[in-house]
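Here we describe the complex-level prediction in full. Unlike the single-chain runs in Section 2.1, the two entities below were treated as one system.
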Amino acid sequence: MVDITPADGIPPAEVAEVELYHPHSWWTKYVFSQDAKVIAIQYSATATGIGLVALVLSWLMRLQLGFPGTFDFITPEAYYQFITMHGMIMVIYLLTALFLGGFGNYLIPLMVGARDMVFPYVNMLSYWIYLLAVLVLVSSFFAPGGPTGAGWTLYPPQAIMSGTPGGQDWGIILMLSSLILFIIGFTMGGLNYVVTVLQGRTRGMTMMRLPLTVWGIFTATVMALLAFPALFVASVMMLLDRVLGTSFFMPAISEMGEQLPHNGGSPILFQHLFWFFGHPEVYIVALPAFGIVSDLISTHARKNIFGYRMMVWAIVGIGALSFVVWAHHMYVSGMHPYFGFFFATTTLIIAIPTAIKVYNWVLTLWRGDIHLTIPMLFALAFIVTFVNGGLTGLFLGNVVVDVPLSDTMFVVAHFHMVMGVAPILVVFGAIYHWYPKATGRMLNETLGRFHFWVTFLGAYLIFFPMHYLGLMGVPRRYAELTDMTIMTESAHHLNSFISIMAFIVGFAQMVFLFNLIWSIRHGREAGGNPWRATTLEWQTPQTPPAHGNFGKDLPIVYRWAYDYSVPGAKEDFIPQNMPGSFGPSREPA
Amino acid sequence: MSVILVFLLVIAGFAGWWLSHQRLMTKPWLEQGLASDFVGFDRSALPTAKIGLGVFLAVVGCLFALFTSAYFMRMAVSDWQPLPLPGLLWLNTGVLVLSSVALQCAVVAARKRQIDMVRLGLATAGLTALAFLIGQLIAWRQLTEDGYLLSSNPANSFFYLITGMHGLHILGGLVGLGRTTAGAWNGARPERLRLSVELCAMYWHFLLFVWLAIFALLAGWAATFIDICRQLLT
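The structure predicted for the assembly as a whole is:
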């Protein structure tokens, strides 16, 4: 292909300069900031804060499971509350907020070559509503009766009955209100991420030149915008059932010999709405991870991504397919067998684009110049973990295999591997990768390697044995299993072992947090482009990027994001904004 | 869940149409340079705010499609007793149509830069929209006085829930309309005013469409229509 740049001078940019909002005081610069980078850090810090709460809750759960009866303060009610809050926080308030609110805000404008998001004011509101949602959620810990203990799926009728912790107290009301707020806030942010990718791209940045990170976040945001309304509808209707006594979900039911006012409601309707959100949610978390990991692998293996087009198609295909698989979470709800057959088929079809992505990552590594940096270690760990969790997904996607495994520890092991550990590994990899851009300093290498090995191996030691427990028939959601015949002595030992590993892995996260804070001042100076990467965020004139990102002129993009080790080029990477044409391989075949 | 799936199919159609214009078949690794022939693929010529509003309306549409899906699923349970719709709703519908028409007039006037007509259109649209909301509240009052309480039957619950949601969206729109109207009186730049008026009109037409759809749904015509379709298919 020939170089089609006009040799003398570049025609004037056709991208109109946006009117940037310039902060006037400390408050508007760092607190009520409209700068996407500041909002990103606010989102990340809040998500990390609430994530620590979820981490502590998981410790408490493991204390109970590993050493049943030892800790008096963990009553069965408290255990249910820990389970519920841990799940809800991790899935929504941590992972969704971190990937889209955190990485989305930081990376989209920088990677597409924009000065900021297209609607900065709405973007700021998005964060503050998110913070409010988090505060409402946290307040339920201090409400009378404590937080809800309905399980993260909040299935009615039990979620709003007095037998469930928080069911007839404040817990469930605060939970649902918090979700409604979160969705409103997210919609504001999501509009920004989507429209910035559509309209904010700099000159020459076609969709097919976008880094896969942007493709992943973009598609995930579109999905989230269409999936979260289902949770919104379910939350509003359940809130009415609980507060005003309607019967959307509540069937005729009596409680302690007393007939409740509800009549005829359909709990299955809630399950449909919930999972219509819940399944796309898995990919809302996974797609940004897919995108980020593609960029990490390509950069740290100094090789172009294998099958870029296929990667884009796979992201879009997974996004579309994930809306027609929701009922595979409901195989045991008594659905029509043909219905189950349909959903099993669509579920297994998703394995195809997903497998394409895995093959492409592996083929990108093939004969690459692999640098085992910390981001690369996390990316490799992600591939392994994701394949592992994905394979057990094939088990659970089949109706006949799912029915006996349903509600066992096998399911817990599966979804923690595939949407807990795998995306979190990418989050860590991404933080080690982009921290130098956000702060100007590298994270400490020794602490980082310690963090990686303990987290990666530890997570396997936690979740791998759980598969065996599940196959033995150990159920999930039980606070105490001491007297059950399936709980042999070895199963008890295994549970204790898992708990001890959970403490060790949790401790490693404290080391990571320490590293994050310590390195802001004491880390090694990173320079503008420590990984010698091609994408636009590494080409900013200042590090960390200043307000407006790109100095006086916006960059102009001349090539795709993966020009690594191009034959004939002076260096082993060519930034996207470098003009000129390189490499004998460019000749059309 | 068929309603929401049909809705998503429409969205997927849009997405597919847009994607088909993004040259998904190119080999970006072979194309270097600032492709002048790419310019058309860079971004839409539409104002960014309109695209933003379009995306938002898709989300709102999704919300109401989900309510409709839930409505049909809950309707199938035997305790469902449809409630008689107050005749006032017809009047309200007329008022909302008037509101949309007034905004459309404001758009035409804004394009011709007739600021007085813009002001008139905006004020009429705002007042009629307020009248619509008051009318809806009166309709609610009538129903509760006749004993159709929120929690006495799921049909009632859905009626209050869906009309309430729609009313809240109108209320939110009134904030935007209020800002635009204030701008029209305080001498906003003509291009900027025109864009704001167009955005308001877009939102208003959409909410009118949503109202007509949910009116048909609550009156039971939508269910009849779907039954006819089903019979035709089988």
